[in-house]
Design brief:
The complex is a heterodimer of chains A (117) and B (113). With 117 residues, chain A is an all-beta fold. Chain A is 0% helix and 53% strand. Chain A has no helices and eleven strands. Classes of the chains: A mainly beta (117), B mainly beta (113).
């Protein structure tokens, strides 16, 4: 399996622009997570989906952030408008669990490094 | 609110040394605990997962232990190698059905040849 695939690997944009990050989870994994990593705050969960349905979006910082999962093999995280404080590495992760859970490890993509100037 | 702490933030050791990385968490009501490795510019790779009913897990030179009642886990690395240099993060999953992991900020390990 190719693992969790994220694109782009790097994104540099100007403040106010729209940014879309993409993720393809591992085939068969029915839970998908978006995390943000910064030096100051470490890894923070933004939102997670189970069977394409958003389960917990309490970590989404503001209305400028939105995430979708139109099907089992694709998810997007959109920031509109972007701000310099959004600069971070954004990770997508997936795991083959459902609500109620199981003991499967989380598989991460290599992340998208976002820089907003 | 669950908080996960990893001390020290950075550790430098000579090659061949056995070492222990520490992780503590404030709420003992956990479903499982995972240790991850992160290399620069990469995502996290799961190393070991300990279920709440387990005390330890082993994989090769790695051994992770869990003491739920005291809110502690350790990752033991035997005979460290330069290739072990990375940041090691622990994360806990709470009981109750949520799949939300709470991460520590990690320990950056450098193994010097």
């Amino acid at each position: 399996d190719a693992g969790v695939i994220q694109s782009p690997r790097h994104e540099v944009t100007e403040m106010g622009q729209e940014v879309t990050l993409r993720c393809k989870p591992i085939s068969g994994h029915n839970s998908l997570f978006w995390y943000r990593q910064t030096m100051m705050r470490g890894l923070e969960l933004l939102i997670y989906f189970n069977n394409n349905v958003p389960i917990d979006d309490s970590g989404m910082p503001e209305d400028r952030f939105s995430a979708k999962m139109p099907n089992a093999s694709f998810s997007t995280l959109k920031i509109q408008p972007s701000e310099p404080r959004d600069s971070a590495v954004y990770f997508c992760a997936s795991t083959p669990t459902g609500t109620g859970g199981s003991n499967s490890p989380l598989h991460f993509g290599n992340g998208t490094r976002l820089t907003v100037t | 609110k669950q908080e996960v702490t990893q001390i020290p933030a950075a550790l430098s050791v000579p090659e061949g040394e056995n070492l222990v990385l520490n992780c503590s968490f404030t709420d003992s009501a956990i479903y499982n605990l995972q240790w991850f490795r992160q290399d620069p510019g990469k995502g996290l790779t799961s190393l070991l997962l300990i279920q709440s009913s387990q005390r330890e897990q082993t994989s090769g030179r790695l051994n992770a232990s869990l003491d739920k009642s005291s809110g502690r886990s350790t990752l033991y690395i035997a005979a460290s190698q330069p290739g072990d240099s990375a940041t090691y993060l622990c994360a806990v999953r709470p009981q109750g059905g949520s799949e939300k992991l709470v991460f520590g900020k990690g320990t950056k390990l450098t193994v010097n040849p």
